[in-house]
Amino acid sequence: MHLHWLIFFLVTLRWVCDAKYCSFTQYAKAKKDLFEHLGLDKNDFQNTRMWPLIFNNYYENNYTEFSPTNNTEINPADNTEFKPAYIYVDLYVTSIINVDEKAQSLTTQVKTITAWPNLKMWWRTEDFCGITKFVAPRNMFWTPDIGIMESIKTEFGTKESPNVMLFNFGYAVSFEMLSLTTACKMDLHRFPFDTQSCNITLQSTSYSNHDIALDLLTNKWNITSESKKFQAQGEWELLEINYTKATLAKWIEVDQLIYQITIKRRPQLYVINIIVPVFFFLLLDVASFFIDTKEEDKLNFKVTLLLSISVMLLILNDTLPSTAENLPLIGVYCCAIFCLIGISIVETIFVNFLKTKAAEKRSVETTAAVTVTGRDDLASTPDSVKDQNDKHSCTIDLLKQILTEVQAATQQNQRKKTSLCWTRVARIIDVTFLVLYIITIIVFLSVLGKLWLP
Questions:
Q1: Which of 282, 390, 299 is nearest to 339 (CA)?
Q2: pLDDT digits (tens, 9 = 90+) for 179-192
Q3: Fewer CB atoms < 10 Å away: N or C end of the chain?
Q4: How far is residue 341's CA from residue 303's CA, in Å, rounded to a whole number?
Q5: Which among 176, 42, 57 has a CA at the least distance from the CA of 120?
Q6: DSSP string covering 18-56, please?
């Protein structure tokens, strides 16, 4: 069994009774003896707080040879191949508190388990009543200076743990609950159907990889499954936690342990509050073509729809960052529907103009017809008082009257044709635009759905 598996096994089995074969008095005495055996009563700076510099392959394979009881020492002149100190770290995401898209930051509650070797803190369990672990004050020991590179703000969940746990095979373990706010570059192209990956990078702030090497305490499957047990049903769902090891080379080479946290947004809230209402505004705009009422009422209805979508765009402006590299598709969705309804309003205004022209022609026709009738009446009045014997003059007046009526009828037919032409053009434009409008909407929503929906 590898050493880090042994550490994890002992850490997770903390409920095992150490005083299993001892009485309460013997167990209490054993703990006191162990406290003195480890030199914790002397507060020896060199023995307890200095970082042990000796870690080699022989220790990894047989740590018992480094027991303080056999006084084994390593000669610096030996040709033994030395290795850096392996610091084992586990990070569990217990809660996703907040994801700030505009600030590009992720706030999480995490639990960290850190294990590191301390050769001076070694003992034989059989000499101390089977005790395998011992809790001691943190300020008496050297602890790894593991920092989080993406951290904007880091706070302890309650307060910093005052203790560390010592294990009999020479390892110290600390447990911490942290509230982290870390920088996270987010891709909001598919908002709100997006999946984000944020990194939490752990590395030593002082030691190079010749002194400290970072490794995972367990495996990524265990980290993911344990983290999901803590998750509440909020806006974000934890998918998985992966990790990679890397080396940062600037002034010195430093080991890094990179945890990649993959989370998925639950989009139901945005679908109900933004996507579905905007879609129904579009359906209402299509339905407005079938409204059999005054054109002014139809125009007012369409303008109201346009203003409603403007409110939705203001809501998106408060949610989405202004510096996104890729334009969010939800913005394309709302802006495209906004433009479609705007074009629909322009078409309604144009059709209204054509129908107004036709109405004016009909009004002129009616006026002309009344004028002709009036003239006929006026013409008939003087004919009644004329001399009945002047047949020649009467015939001429009759011919003039017939000619006038023929000209009026011709003009009336021309005006009717012009009025019908304007009305027919308006109807053709309206129907053609409606067909093209529906086809455009279907094509747009189909293409956007393929790009947008997971």
A1: 282
A2: 899 999 988 899 99
A3: N
A4: 8
A5: 42
A6: TTTTS-HHHHHHHHHHHHHHTTTTTT-IIIIISPP---B
Q: For residues 209 and 248, what is the distance between their CA atoms, to the nearest angstrom?
A: 9
User: Which residue among 240, 266, 292 closes a domain?
Assistant: 266
Quickly list H helices, 43-149.
57-61
262: left (phi over 0), alpha (psi -120 to 50) or beta: beta
Residues with Cβ within 8 Å of 154's Cβ and at least 6 positions away in sequence, in order, are: 148, 178, 179, 180, 181
d(CA 246, CA 202): 10
| Whether residue 281 sits in one domain with residue 146 | no
> What is the reported pTM?
0.73
Cα dist. 130→31, 135, 269 in Å?
Answer: 10, 15, 56
Domain boundary among 266, 288, 310: 266
145 and 33 both lie in a single domain: yes
Range of 366's domain?
Answer: 270-452
Most confident of 35-49, 167-181, 296-310, 361-375: 167-181
The count of domains in the chain is 2
